[in-house]
Each structure stands twice: as structure tokens, then as C-alpha cells.
Amino acid sequence: MSLPTQMTAHPSTTIPPPHLTGLAKLRWAVKNPPADPNVTFAGKTVLVTGANTGLGFEAAVKYAQKGCKKLILAVRSLSKGEAAKAAIIEKSNRPTEPFISILAVDLSSFPSVHAFATALEKEVHSTGLHIALLNAGLANPAYTKGTHAYDTALQVNVLGTALMAHLILPLLRPTGQDPPHLTFVNSFAHTEVQREWYAAPPSAGSLLAFANDADAFEQRKHYAAVKLLGMSVMQHFARTAAGRVVVNSCCPFFCRTNLGRNFGQAMQVVMGAVQYFTARSGEEGARTLVGATALGEESQGAFWHHDVLYPMGELAMDGDEMGKCWGEIWGVLEREGQVGAGVGAGAGVGGV
Q: CATH for 37-335, among 3.30.300.350, 3.40.50.720, 1.10.3720.10, 3.90.226.10?
């Protein structure tokens, strides 16, 4: 009996149980990991960003194990991409199939994103692109200015990812009856943002300005703000691509990965000890990522978390606020000369 190619998602407000908080919620998540998606990706070309490590690597392994026709690993380092390719081939037991390609991209560099999109277009010219899992992410312990005068985490997680999504969206094609998928890896942390964090000057109501303010930097607040900005990116593309591409977001919850690799050694030791008792494995977290790319149109603009369509945060449900955030993100891309003025801006985007 052949496996299905899609899953149906359902909303829930009771998973995890609402009364659980803190450590109890983390322990619940460890004891109740997401199910491994019972689907096949046969015949599909899949792109995974940040594919050489952590959740991206584990997701790439799953796509290979579940029969994808072509797997494209988007990585910063080609040598690390080659190492990941070898490991994926071994884990998927597909040593004789030349099904993995490696493309370089540095999301902290706008020119690199453009070069990647050009290379990707050539790579999928004959097959089309069916699934794009935008997983690459960064978390820093302090404000770090990148090459484009924006905080590095903001640049990678939001600005570079938004530009990539804009450039690769036209490449996505359906497979038979299955729509193509564009999935953004996000976090439940987006629900923690409070409007008062950025209401007063100098942010003056701009979440983007708050996330790029070195003087206002507090690690947890910054992480949450970046994730909420990421939700505005997802919502924009979910609205503009509705009926053609399934666009959604997902959160794997707390997992044992190297996301905190830029933190000091002492903090990494502490985080490792905490993760041992309170975090899902990378393989379990990847189930959420891969599952999100197999959901139907009921997941358009939605948030896949703990195997349900989970309620988004209050600000993420505020269409005006999300539209404002997207407008500011697009404004950056315009000012940096990365996109044509007015094209795809979607200034009036509401919530989805």
C-alpha cells in the first residue's frame, strides 16, 4: 500500500494542556514528541536551508529517507555541505542515487542570496521546485552588526530570509495534485512580544527598529521580536501566494541543537545540561519541520506546533501590525537596492 503525499492539519487550543508552564511544559513536550510524518516525498524536489547542521540536517535526512527525488542543501560552507551530503546518503541508504545537490548561500549577505537564487533557478530548471523549507537561523547573546548595518540575527532570520522567499517563490511548482510548499521555521517565542517593548522612542512603534537597536538589546526580547518579524514575512507570502503555494510556519519547540553556538562556552555547557532533561532530540524536532511541508491548504498562513495548528500570538494576529512590519521589511530591501520599488510590497497586507 502506497503512502500518502499529504497530511491534514487540525487546530487545537488544548495541546499542550493550558495549565502547564515552565519546566512542566518542557517535560510534557519531551514525553509527547511530534509524530514522524507518515508520508512520501517521491517525485519531489526539496530545498532545505541551513541543511548541514541541527534541525535542517535532520529534516534533510528525513526527506531523503522518505524518497524525495532531488534534495538541495543550502549551506554557508560547501565543505560542510559535502560532509552533510555524505552523512545523509549513509543514513538514507541511497548510495547509488545522485539525488543531492549543494548550493552555497550566506543569508547575512544580500548579494549572496541573489547569487543563490540564480544558481537555484538553474538547478531546478528541469525538475521544478516543489518544497522550500526555510530553516536557517541564528541566535546571538549580544547585538552584532552585520555587513549591511543591521543586527546579524535580524539580517539572517528576517531580511535575508524575506529576500530569499521573494526570489524563489516563482520557482515553486505543484507535483501532480499536490501544491508546492514554502515553510518558514519560526518559534513559539513570537507570542511573548509585548507592544510596550517598542512603543516609546527611539523605536517609536517600530518592531524592526527595536530589533535593530543595540542599546535596547535584551537577548530573550530580541529573539522573540525577530521571530514575530518572521511571522509577518510568512503572512505576507501566505496572502500573496494563496491558491498557488501553501505557505505556513512551524515551531519544533525546545530541541537539542547547536542554535546557541555563538554563546560562550560556559553558557553552552549550562544549556547542554538543561537540554538533556528538557529538550526534544533534533530528529524529533525535524518531524515538525517535515510535517509542515506536507500539510494541505488548511495550513495556509498558519502555525504548525505540537502536531496541531496552534494559535498564533496576539500581535501576530493583528493584521495592521503585521502589515506594518512587512512594509518596513520591504522598505529595507528597497533601500538596499535588493528589490524593485513597489513590486511585491503588499503595503495593505492584513492578517491571514
A: 3.40.50.720
